Amino acid sequence: MSEIKRKENSVNNEYYGQFNEVGERHGYGVYHYSDGGIYIGQWLNNTCTGEGIYRASNGDIYRGRFINGLMYDKGSRTSFDGHKYIGDYLFGRSEGQGTYIWPNGDKYVGSWVNNDRTGKGVYIWANGERYEGEFLCGEVHGNGIYYSSDGTIHTGQWIHGKSV
C-alpha cells in the first residue's frame, strides 16, 4: 500500500491515505466530501469498511463500524441539534438494541427495527414518568406498565399510543 493525496473526481472530493495495488482507497484514510462532510477511518477496496468517524456537512456525527459505506454493528450517532443514539446498526439503520436520548432529557432504551422503536423497551420522560412494555413503529403499542410522576401505576394495553 502507498500513501498519497489524490483529488477524487471533478466535484472536489479529496482523499488522503492508503491505496491498494490497483489504486483503490484501502487501509486508513481521510475523505473530504465536496458538501463539507468528512470520513476518517478504515477503507476496503474503495469503500468505508471498518472502524471510522463520519461527520456530515450539517454537523451530525457517527462513530462506529461501517460496511460498504453504511453504519453497521455497534456505533453512536449524535445529531447537530442534540439527539443521540447509541446501539446496534444494520446496513445504515438502527436495528437491534439501542438507546436514544432527546435534547430535552427524554430517553428510550430497547429494541429497534428499521429505525423505529419496535419490540420491548422503556421510555423515560425527563419529568420522571416511565413506560415499560411494547412498542410498534415508534409508538407505545401492546402490553405495558406506565409509572406517572405522582406515583400512580397503570398496567394495561395500548394501541397506537392510547391506553385501552
Written overview of the protein:
With 164 residues, the protein is mainly β. It folds into 2 domains: 1-81, Single Sheet (Histone H3 K4-specific methyltransferase SET7/9 N-terminal domain), CATH 2.20.110.10; 86-164, Histone H3 K4-specific methyltransferase SET7/9 N-terminal domain, CATH 2.20.110.10. It contains no helices and 15 strands. It has strands at 2-8, 13-19, 25-32, 38-44, 47-55, 61-67, 70-78, 84-90, 93-101, 107-113, 116-124, 130-136, 139-147, 153-159, 162-163. A 15-stranded antiparallel sheet has the order 1-2-3-4-5-6-7-8-9-10-11-12-13-14-15, with no helix packed on it. Strand 5 and strand 6 form a beta hairpin. The N and C termini lie far apart (63 Å). The model has no long low-confidence stretch (mean pLDDT 93).
Whole-number tally of structural domains: 2
Give a count of the beta strands, DSSP E runs of length 2 or more: 15
Question: What is the H level of CATH, i.e. the homologous superfamily of the largest domain?
Answer: Histone H3 K4-specific methyltransferase SET7/9 N-terminal domain
Supply Rg. Answer: 20 Å
CATH class of the largest domain: Mainly Beta
Structural descriptors:
mainly beta, 2 domains, 15-stranded antiparallel beta sheet, 15 strands, elongated
